[in-house]
Specification:
The protein has 175 residues and is an alpha+beta fold. The chain has five helices and six strands.
């Protein structure tokens, strides 16, 4: 029996395999490669890694890849968690998708939608090996996107790779 794999899935598999198997010189380079793969797989204008403190109810942009000046999220930005759709991921530790935040009364008032012009949001949790919640791997776009289970699944795989990189970085800092 043969399985027909779409060109999109072949590309996603190749990009994911590349970042999973590559040895990076530093953590920044690794996260840039993972975000680049995420962006190519999903087609979202901006992809980012947030670090979330549920105790402080705060979100900080840990790494970001902006491909279009129409939607730019600054590296290091700190905002209250309640000002981000990532709050849904943080409270449930499950993926959260909005195909169009602009038409959702709760989401349309958040800075990503209101101030930055984002419509589509997809976020998956980044959970470390010890089970602790680190933050979110996110895609944002100014155009609405159809919900895609495939994108969610690929982002979950990439979030696991992000978690491994975060753990390596922390281990290197301790050593």
């Amino acid at each position: 029996m043969t399985t027909d794999i779409s060109q999109e899935n072949k590309l996603a598999l190749a990009l994911t395999a590349k970042v999973a198997s590559e040895t990076f010189g530093d953590p920044v380079e690794a996260l840039e490669a993972i975000l680049g793969a995420t962006q190519r797989i999903t087609g979202f204008q901006t992809v980012l890694l947030s670090e979330i403190s549920t105790e402080k109810c705060e979100l900080r942009i840990h790494a970001v890849e902006n491909s279009d000046s129409a939607l730019t999220v600054p590296l290091g930005l700190k905002i209250p968690l309640t000002a981000s759709p990532c709050q849904h991921v943080a409270t449930s530790v499950k993926p959260f998708v909005s195909t169009n935040m602009q038409v959702d009364a709760e989401l349309s008032v958040l800075p990503a939608a209101k101030d930055m012009g984002a419509s589509a949001y997809i976020g998956v949790p980044v959970v470390l090996g010890d089970g602790s919640f680190f933050g979110t791997l996110v895609g944002l776009d100014t155009e609405p996107h159809e919900e895609s289970q495939e994108y969610i699944q690929w982002m979950q795989v990439l979030a696991r790779i992000v978690a491994q990189q975060i753990e390596r970085q922390r281990a290197a800092e301790v050593a």
